[in-house]
Amino acid sequence: MLDLKFIRENKDIVKEAVKNRGYKLDIDEFLKFDEEHRKLLIEVEDLRSRRNKANDEITAIMKVKGNPKEIIAKMKPISQKIADLEAKVEEVSQKIDKTKYIIPNIPDKSLPVGGPECNKIVKSWGKTPNFDFKPKTHIELAEILDIICFGVASKITGSNFILYKGLGARLERALINFMLDLHTKKHGYTEIFPPFLVNRRSMTGTGQLPKLEDDMYRLKDEDLFLIPTAEVPVTNIHAGDTLEESELPIRYTAYSACFRREAGSYGKDTRGLVRVHQFNKVELVKFVKPETSFDELEKLLNDAEEVLQLLELPYRVVMLATGDISFAAAKCYDIELYAVGVDTYLEVSSCSCFTDFQARRANIRFKRITQNAQRKTEYVHTLNGSGVALPRLVVAIMENYQNEDGSVRIPKVLIPYMDGLELIKANGV
């Protein structure tokens, strides 16, 4: 969340950010509540001070066997007024909190202003495949190869869930292991295997709540949520912590299943792997010093890109405009893979810098050693990115590596993870 002091002193910047994001929030009303809250607190503290002074006088009178009746009588209306003001303070505090937690982060100045139509392609990599036959979609290939059973998943659970079978399950596992090995052994991330359920505090800390609660899966009898991404539990590893400057940057990578209720509500792409309610993903999370955060974003992006380069899959990188970045992000790049069967680009990663927005919500700080050897406490900057999400990655591999007979070649870098298997074909190996 944004610092209240920053909002007070930079209300025009906040208003512009809200407008550029396409949000409708009354910042002036919010600041009126904030001003009222501060005035009420001053009044309450003044009355409490008077009451404390009177209590001291009452104690002194009673020590000498005197009668404090007159002072007590004078204090009764003051005590009642304090109670009334405290109730008013709580009421105004709730109004402030209701808005404070839904004011979005300030977009970085480098972002294009506008909605998704203003997103900017900043780089492309690889060549799109050119077949001398009509390429099949991953749905058709899955049926030929008997490696993904959409109908069975629907029977077990419902629409937009996946059941991988045989070499399809093996391919999924190979991709997860390949990405975790790359990020830990080459890129220097520490592997985490987090819980797939988190509490409300954790979801609020990373910004999913309160804004996106309706999009989340929540347990009926406990206030716990299935994670929409490993970003939530991994970022909250350091919730409430004060780190040492020497510990930064901290880099974590994690595999998790991800659960998103909104996935099947788009009215399009509801068949196959493009939009699903549960999917696997390898996540990258960083905690860094403020002055390095945007450089660290570029490194994070490169780490995610290398996954696709090693798999030899064509992709493009898109800088999202102010109206398309997530609520908590200050800057975000999407990586989109080209898949020949569906003939479109599919997002497989969003790499974001949140500045101190999440750190303020989750209270993640560090102690900086200043030039005069003093220790100054600041909020860290957090970053995260998919490194990468699997369903659309599998789509691209199946469609771009297909043969005319419906068999699918295994990318070279994955062959060791598939025990030397080079081809998935009908009726198995």
Task: Describe the protein.
There is one protein chain. Helix content is 39%, strand content 20%. It is of the alpha+beta class. It has two domains: 97 residues, Helix Hairpins, CATH 1.10.287.40; 309 residues, 2-Layer Sandwich (BirA Bifunctional Protein, domain 2), CATH 3.30.930.10. The strands form four sheets. The chain has an eight-stranded mixed β-sheet. A three-stranded mixed β-sheet has the order 5-11-12, with no helix packed on it. Strands 3-4 form a two-stranded antiparallel sheet. Helix 3 runs antiparallel to helix 4. The longest helix has 37 residues. It is elongated, with a radius of gyration of 27 Å. The mean pLDDT is 95.
Layout of helices and strands:
Layout: H1 4-9, H2 11-21, H3 27-63, H4 69-100, E1 120-125, H5 138-145, H6 150-156, H7 167-186, E2 190-192, E3 197-199, H8 200-206, E4 224-226, H9 231-235, E5 242-244, E6 250-259, E7 278-288, H10 293-310, E8 315-319, E9 331-339, E10 344-353, H11 357-362, E11 365-369, E12 375-379, E13 381-389, H12 390-400, E14 408-409, E15 423-424
Parallel strand pairs: 2-6, 5-11
Antiparallel strand pairs: 1-8, 3-4, 6-7, 7-13, 8-9, 9-10, 10-13, 11-12, 14-15
Helix pairs in contact: 3-4
